[in-house]
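Give me structure tokens for this 86-residue protein.
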Amino acid sequence: MTGWKWNKMRKRIEDEFTYLAVSRQRKYQLRMQRDKRCTECGEPAVQGSRCLKHLVKARERQRKKRGLKRRYYGTLSYKLQAVEKR
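Here you go.
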């Protein structure tokens, strides 16, 4: 192999998170949060730190974990889901 492939490496990201003593995954999450994107997939975040898809998944995951049967329709994820269905 020739040495030209080594010249095509990506440059290191230099920002306020570069030298933090946290994992690569956490740096990714912080960068996504700064840019108002979903911390899980990178889609635009509707509100907070998640897109609607992951907001709903987190809601259902918590309901299952806690063994809840009742639904709280006044919460943010239900309201945003209703707006999107229109």
